[in-house]
Amino acid sequence: MRASTAFGLASWIGLLAAPALQAHDFWIEPSAFAPAPGQRVAVRLRVGQELRGDPVPRDPALIQRFVVVGPAGGEAPIPGVPDTEPAGFVAFQAAGPAMIVYDSNRSAVQLDARKFEDYLAQEGLEKISTLRASRGQSAAGVKEVFSRFAKSLIAVGNGSGPGYDRVLGQRLELVPEGNPYALTGGGELRVRLLYEGKPLAGALILALQKGRPEAKVSARSDAQGRVRLRLDRPGFWLVKAVHMIAAPRDAGADWESFWASLTFEVPGP
């Protein structure tokens, strides 16, 4: 293994062990959002905050699903070499909207009370904080298990056509109900949040733009799981949401969280 690869893997393992990871986002960052048909695209995984992230090498032990869905539908595995970065490579043969999909297995983390309460407030999970307070648990540390559900919408060729709004069966899933590649220069994007295939109401959904940390747009999902996000400029956008439940008995933890992300690029005028 090359020294740089070994260092990257060690850094990722260190991040997994760090409690601060639970307040970090996870997303897919392709080398091109609008490739030509047949163009090779590197699929990079990132963990960090405000779209400033560290590379995540490909780890088969963490991957539950890592696939590409082409414009015509149907899933194909994304090939790659374990313990390397980028995590994989894809090429799309047909023009139209395509999706890169990543689902992780569970990971576990221990958090002290202050860090846990801080991140509940940051991610809009005040209901969990209120529930802990009603149980007299606000000062108690927790063991949490979490999993990641990331998507990246790719516009192959001109990116037009159906398929941008496919529901792909993620445990927690962000579904664009408009094509962001049609928002020339910016505009309003409607997004729906699903948990186990059903609309999730009351969740905080946040949009961030790369290179502009002050450009944060947020809304709570309505009864149909929908929000409208005003994306005011072209560029690389991340939409994210977190949902938390009491951990099932088999998880061996107090709480279980699900982290969804969606990346895409709004084209310039």
Protein architecture, described:
This protein has 269 residues and is mainly beta. It has one domain (3-266). Helix content is 13%, strand content 46%. The chain is built from 3 helices and 17 strands. It has helices at residues 3-17, 113-122, 126-134, and strands at 25-30, 40-49, 52-55, 63-69, 75-77, 88-91, 96-104, 107-111, 142-156, 172-176, 187-195, 198-199, 204-209, 212-220, 226-231, 235-246, 255-266. The strands form 3 sheets. Strands 4, 5, 7, 8, 9, 13, 14, 16 and 17 form a 9-stranded mixed β-sheet that branches. Strands 1, 2, 3 and 6 form a 4-stranded antiparallel β-sheet that branches. β4 and β5 form a beta hairpin. The longest helix has 15 residues, at 3-17. It is globular and about 55 Å long. Residues 1-22 have low confidence and may be disordered.
Quick take:
By secondary structure, the chain is mainly β. It is built from three helices and 17 strands.
Strand content: over 45%
Query: Could you give a short account of the major beta sheet?
Result: 9 strands, mixed
Low-confidence stretches: 1-22
Quote the distance from N terminus to C terminus.
Answer: 44 Å
Q: Structural class given helices, strands, pairing? A: mainly beta
Mean pLDDT: 91
Principal-axis shape equals globular
Backbone CA Rg: 18 Å
What is the element string, with H for helices and E for strands? HEEEEEEEEHHEEEEEEEEE
The share of residues in helices is 10-25%
Number of domains: 1
Helices, by number, come to: 3
Number of extended strands: 17
